[in-house]
Amino acid sequence: MPARRVIPCLDVRDGRVVKGVQFSGLRDAGDPVERAAAYAAQGADELVILDVSATPEGRGHAAETVAAVRAVLDIPLTTGGGVRTEDDAARLLEAGADKVAVNTAALRDPSLLGRLAARFGRQCVVLSLDAARVGDGWQAVVHSGTERTARDAVAWAREAADRGAGEILLTSWDRDGTRSGYDCPLMAAVSAAVEVPVIASGGADRAEHLAEALRAGADAVLIASILHDGDTTVRQLKEALAAAGLEVRR
């Protein structure tokens, strides 16, 4: 198995990094360019930028933020939020993104994934899948968590991978911002259903949580609050994972 990745995430609104709980109650968490540069210096393997207000506000992603971050970054960059068409994705790739994440638009029109893969290559296409627990399973949620769908999250992940998604960014709505640990049963269910890499997101508080998600089948772990709040660094997390016997990138 390839070395696991540790990926900081910057949720951005109006040009600022924000963080909340279950996608709401957002608080300011700094400048995205400064954060990106700091996390890259700490040893981040990749970076994710999600424009959390683009879809609810019915606009495209703020490409200028992507360009500004790319100027200080020498690691792969994934960006999402407000991507509805191939041209939306092209603008973000031209601004400096390496991969583009789609959520609401892909669920509304699953053929979008195939069109993006055909034009840019599936290695550029990430399904951003937000999932909320319902009974013994999970449902996909869209519009930055404000709308629940009847779509089974695991089945949607499988279909999305078949249609052209080269990676899945899997966020537990229930755990987002709670720092109570990743939803490992969700992680295990999705990773078993697809053959593409899966990134675990939502709920990290300490290195043990990252290790649990990786052992549940994640290929990478996304982190935000624990970095933004200064509780730890990417390098410290990687060292702890290595000490726990998990192979991480150096």
Q: Overview of this structure, please?
A:
This protein has 250 residues and is of the alpha/beta class. The protein has one domain (5-243): TIM Barrel, CATH 3.20.20.70. Helix content is 35%, strand content 28%. The protein contains ten helices and twelve strands. An eight-stranded parallel β-barrel has the order 1-4-5-6-7-10-11-12, surrounded by seven helices. A hairpin with a 2-residue loop joins strand 2 and strand 3 (24-30). The longest helix is centred in the middle third of the chain and has 11 residues, at 153-163. The relative contact order is 0.15. Residues 56-60 have low confidence and may be disordered.
CATH architecture: Alpha-Beta Barrel
- The CATH first-level class comes to Alpha Beta
Tell me the β content. Answer: 25-35%
Number of strands: 12
Helicity level: 25-40%
User: Number of DSSP helices?
Assistant: 10
Low-confidence stretches: 56-60
The termini sit apart by 15 Å
SSE pattern, N- to C-terminal: EEEHEHEHEHHEEEHEHEHEHH
Class from helix and strand fractions: alpha/beta
CATH fold-level label: TIM Barrel
Radius of gyration computed on alpha carbons: 16 Å
The chain-level mean pLDDT equals 90
Task: Summarize the main sheet.
Answer: 8 strands, parallel, barrel
Tally of individual domains? 1
